[in-house]
Design a protein that fits this description.
This protein is an alpha/beta fold. The protein folds into two domains: 156 residues, Periplasmic binding protein-like II (D-Maltodextrin-Binding Protein, domain 2, 3-Layer(aba) Sandwich); 160 residues, Periplasmic binding protein-like II (D-Maltodextrin-Binding Protein, domain 2), CATH 3.40.190.10. The protein is built from 13 helices and eleven strands. Strands 1, 2, 3, 4, 5, 6, 7, 8, 9, 10 and 11 form an eleven-stranded mixed sheet that branches. Helix 7 packs parallel to helix 13. The longest helix is centred in the N-terminal third of the chain and has 19 residues. 42% of the residues are buried.
């Protein structure tokens, strides 16, 4: 009997000791997601390939809204917009950045965006707000322009062209790379500048003369600048004049591998060769996260994103009071004169002009 009580007492003591031990959590694999990751929402921003934003700026929005922003690059501006229109019934994203004033009317006619009057619009000049229904809101602006490789012209003892018409002269044969207006927004912007300058009766004559003078036509800005322009390609290209932006020279300094402190490229600012381009963002019809999409629009028009625009996309922020980096104040330009064609005129004539240009230049 005594032994039975001893055994019983031993079991009681073991039970008490076990109850007093701390309860440890099960081992968690080091790569397991955090407990709150399941609550993080994904927001998809589609754009053209030239969209960029600093990681820390995007992370600020993500942290403030407990969201993960997925960036979806869809090609050059015209190509990207086409994909958004074709996927209208099953949107690829929650919002889209990259419609510019050359494609604005086409984007609005496709009815793929919903109105959203962001409170941040109060900071933006009325002249940049081209959609009164606020389906597309301005984020940045730039000036499509001709850039030239100053060193090339000095080394070849050749004067920089002083007028657009001079590009058809024999001494400039094979020097220009331009961009297809059917696939690229800067390409279309440059075409529109020439139409504004030469008129509908004369612009095709100019382009036909360029073709006879061995102009190179490519499908996108990146291909033109980085593959063929002698500055952007690091000297491996063969074209010292390119359709680009008046804000490209700062990029030339920032990304140069030779430590240069001044750009090798210069803006030509030729009459008929400058077009002001405005880029917009809009919330897509059928967005899975429309409220978060609106918040991202607000953020893109806010201080942090606007200040990030110049050295990420090399265009000007839409909010005019935004401080500019020193590289911009030194080397970027806002040309005094830029050709303009209103959205209604573009809408009425875009396809006719592009088809006529294609017949002359590519067939």
């Amino acid at each position: 009997m005594k032994r039975r009580w001893q055994i019983l007492l031993l079991f009681v003591m073991l039970a008490l000791l076990t109850a007093c031990q701390p309860v440890l959590p099960a081992a968690v694999p080091s790569d397991a997601p955090a407990a709150n990751d399941a609550a993080v929402t994904t927001l998809t921003l589609a754009s053209h390939d030239s969209f960029n934003v600093s990681e820390e700026v995007l992370a600020q929005f993500e942290a403030e809204n407990n969201v993960k922003v997925q960036l979806l690059a869809l090609g050059d501006a015209g190509e990207a917009l086409n994909k958004m229109i074709l996927s209208k019934d099953a949107p690829l994203a929650d919002l889209f950045f990259g419609v510019d004033n050359t494609f604005l009317s086409r984007a609005l006619a496709a009815d793929i965006f919903v109105p959203y009057a962001s409170p941040q619009l109060a900071q933006i000049p009325d002249e940049l707000e081209l959609d009164p229904e606020h389906r597309l809101l301005p984020v940045d602006l730039g000036y499509v322009n001709l850039n030239a490789d100053a060193n090339y012209f000095a080394e070849h003892n050749l004067a920089l062209p002083q007028a657009l018409e001079e590009l058809t002269k024999p001494e400039y044969k094979g020097l220009l790379v331009a961009i297809n207006p059917a696939t690229s927004s800067p390409g279309l912007a440059f075409l529109l500048a020439t139409i504004s300058h030469f008129g509908e009766e004369g612009y095709l004559d100019f382009w036909q003369a360029l073709r006879a003078n061995d102009v190179l036509i490519v499908n996108g800005w990146s291909e033109a600048y980085y593959d063929h322009f002698t500055v952007g390609s690091g000297g491996s290209g063969d074209r010292p004049i390119v359709v680009s932006y008046s804000t490209s020279p700062p990029a030339d300094v920032l990304f140069a591998s030779d430590g240069r402190t001044a750009p090798a490229s210069v803006n030509l600012n030729l009459a008929g060769g400058v077009f002001r381009q405005i880029e917009f963002v809009g919330v897509l019809e059928g967005a899975k996260e429309p409220e978060l999409a609106q918040k991202l629009v607000d953020f893109m028009l806010g201080d942090a994103f606007q200040a990030d625009v110049p050295l990420q996309m090399f265009v000007y922020p839409a909010v005019p009071e935004t401080p500019l980096p020193e590289l911009f104040t030194q080397f970027a330009e806002q040309p005094a004169v830029a050709d303009q064609v209103d959205a209604a005129t573009i809408d009425a004539n875009r396809e006719t002009w592009i088809d006529a240009w294609t017949n002359v230049m590519l067939r």
